[in-house]
Specification:
alpha/beta; zinc; hydrolase; globular; Aminopeptidase; three-stranded antiparallel sheet; 8 helices; OB fold (Dihydrolipoamide Acetyltransferase, E2P); binds zinc ion
């Protein structure tokens, strides 16, 4: 594939026509290279003058298509020469087979499969997650050598309704690092209406890049999941403008006023108080599994039962997020969050 022959990187990917290529030139002196199925990177002509290296991933869940269409637009704008690169950028369509089928996953939720050691009998999704890790380590290796900041936004849409439509999950920082208020403010200006701070390690794609690539990374939820071509109601204009700025120019700086996270960031900031783990098949969630994300939970409410074990809401101002009683035992059936 070259800049001349590519009709659409998404169409080529879904048709099974993408595989590692030699670098090819783009208008204006930049270059592109397909790294693997559904993975393409672009390098500016003047690598030394860049400010940062960026990875934008989407389609880790195959039925979440609005961010995939956004990434496809960004790629097309780079191919045409309309979006000129200042910075290195790599785009990733995460779960290609699930994208073809229009399903969340084929065998397993891929966003639980990062940060693990590969095994011989790994299924397709496990192997793909390992390959994505290798591609990020390789791509960010140059930024580590050149001491450039690394950014990774893993874009999703939610299968749930949500009282807050666009929100971002900030992975727990590495030891000695802290959550950055400036990074949260940048996302708020990109249209994100709430930030959720993780309190534990995790097995998501954004946790991997934060932990192992020392990247500023977020899982970003951008509205509700719909099939390709039905995303008119999902407004990604601010996010597209922000990513365009990161690719073509650099990092915006926002003045931070006030004391609290919420005042400085400009939107509510929550932290995870507890994970609700489904331990056995007896597990029962006592609210509807379709309850909207961010629905308030009254203090003292019995939220879940699992045999002898009861989960009672003890926190003040608690809310529920990602309720899902249908996960397999051992997995998370929801999160209780509170203001940070
Ligand atoms: Zn998702």
């Amino acid at each position: 594939m070259t800049a001349q022959t590519a009709r659409s990187f998404l169409a080529e990917t879904l048709a099974g026509n993408t595989a590692i290529s030699l670098p090819f030139p783009l208008p204006g002196g930049a270059s592109g290279q397909v790294m693997d199925e559904g993975i393409i990177r672009f390098d500016p002509q003047d690598g030394a003058g860049r400010e940062l290296d960026l990875v934008v991933s989407c389609g880790v869940h195959g039925n979440e298509t609005a961010p995939v269409e956004l990434v496809e637009r960004l790629i097309a704008r780079i191919f045409s020469g309309e979006l000129k690169l200042r910075n290195r950028v790599m785009f990733v369509f995460g779960n290609v087979e699930a994208l073809r089928r229009g399903t969340r996953f084929v065998e397993e939720d891929m966003n639980r499969l990062f940060c693990r050691a590969p095994e011989n009998d790994d299924n397709t999704e496990r192997r793909r997650a390992t390959m994505l890790e290798m591609h990020l380590l390789r791509f960010f290796g140059r930024a580590v050598a050149d001491q450039k900041p690394r950014y990774h936004y893993d874009l999703h849409t939610a299968i749930h309704g949500s009282l807050i439509e666009k929100f971002a999950i900030y992975p727990l920082p590495r030891q000695g690092r802290q959550f950055s208020v400036q990074e949260m403010a940048r996302l708020h200006h990109a249209g994100v209406e709430a930030i959720l701070l993780q309190s534990t390690t995790s097995t998501t794609f954004s946790f991997f890049s934060n932990r192992y690539c020392d990247a500023t990374s977020f899982t970003v939820e951008l509205g509700s999941a719909r099939p390709f071509g039905q995303n008119d109601s999902v407004d990604l204009g601010k996010m597209e403008a922000y990513l365009t700025q990161l690719i073509g120019e650099g990092l915006p700086q926002h003045p931070l006023h006030g004391e609290s996270y919420a005042a400085q960031v400009g939107c509510p900031v929550f932290r995870v108080s507890r994970e609700i783990i489904k331990h056995s098949r007896e597990f029962r969630l006592l609210i509807d599994g379709k309850t909207d994300n961010f629905t308030p939970l009254p203090q003292g409410m019995l939220l879940a039962e699992d045999g002898e074990h009861q989960t009672v809401v003890t926190e003040a101002s608690a809310r529920i997020i990602f309720p899902n009683p249908d996960v397999v035992p051992g997995q998370r059936a929801g999160l209780i969050i509170v203001p940070a």
